[in-house]
Amino acid sequence: MTTVVQKYGGSSLADAERIRHVAGRIAREHAGGARLVVVVSAMGDTTDELLALAAQVTDEPDPRELDLLLATGEHTSGTLVAMALHALQLPAISLTGAQAGIRTDSSHGRARIANVEPERIQRELETGRVVIVAGFQGATDETHLTGEVTTLGRGGSDTTAVALAARLGADRCEIYTDVEGIFTADPRQVAQARLLPVIGYEEMLELAQQGAQVMQTRAVELGWVNGVEILVRSTFSEHPGTTIREDLDVEQRNKVRGLATDRRVAKVTLVAVPDRPGVARTVFDPLAEAGINVDMIVQNIGHSGATDLSFTTPAADLARVRRILEPVVRELGARELTTDADVAKVSIVGAGIHNAPGYAARMFGTLADNGINIEMISTSEIRITCIIRKSDLELAAQALHAAFELERPEPVETGSGSSE
Questions:
Q1: What pTM value is reported for the model?
Q2: What confidence tier does 72 reach under pLDDT thresholds 50, 70, 90?
Q3: Residue 351 contacts by C-beta under 8 Å, 6 or more apart in sequence?
Q4: Among 11, 207, 300, 366, which residue is least crowded by beta carbons within 10 Å?
Q5: Domains and their CATH numbers in the chain
Q6: What's the rounded Cα separation, in Å, for the pair 184 and 212?
């Protein structure tokens, strides 16, 4: 029988009416003969509400207790979906991440999946049940009795779904959300944004890393490593959506495929740092130990024995960064530490662009023509990223989308099996 893993996001499960709608969709798929594993996120804004509640109790929630609290959001969704399926006379059972065999490391709040033990899921599928799995969570790689509950970080339900699809050898992994698939840009910023029928893993990974929120980065990595094709589509329409898979035509396109934007970044600068070996390690080691992600790094050319060192980090971590680096600045004898949360990131992505000249010049020229100043630049083989003022972000997205003609449909490829 066909095995299908489906994942439904929080917006798809925001209230009882939407839960019943999802149950109807699951029932139709089941009627077609598929064995179904359904991964669920917490309802609506439940995770944010639980985080806010914890913050009202204490400024520094214990990581273990916070994971136990946040995991209840997916438990609620899973049980309600199972109940909705029972009401449709469909056999179903809800499982926590631990019951579903999701084993992780012990990093509370950002755990990584170490293993999936699918025996319980397989037994339930063999009885004809739809198996509902609480996403975003697992348990440390110990016995069921002693394993500690962990969460996988934002978007972790995507990771749960792809990991289960890989371990079960599923025929399909479907990610259901409130948009119809992967667009060339955020449709809320760029009205002309176009849906991509197919996108390669590498391009999707860059878009996700640079701020596109439709897919979680680790889920794309898992899909790529394990060869799991991922279909992203809307819960609320029958549009076929976007398939994320190995795209053999990708380097022949020689074009930008999409752009990503991110308002959730901040810039940190250490002013007049002594220009000597070991300074970068002194700055970045304590950030790494604290689990703080550092993205773009720029060091100016030294003058008179000193230099400025700037980097970007998630805005949510800015207070922790300041707390960690203030004593480091004093130790190094730097002039000062400055932070700026009024910045944003805009990126163009395309796996073929490193084979063709002119993309950087066109991007920088487009921003300049629109009076947008570039504060930092970072590149990879398939991406160019600029840090700009947050107030310029929407204009930048619209201007770049037009400059690279992303609204134009791509030609249908016939030579290597692409479906576009």
A1: 0.86
A2: very high
A3: 200, 202, 203, 247, 250, 251, 253, 257, 381, 382
A4: 300
A5: 3-178 (3.40.1160.10)
A6: 10
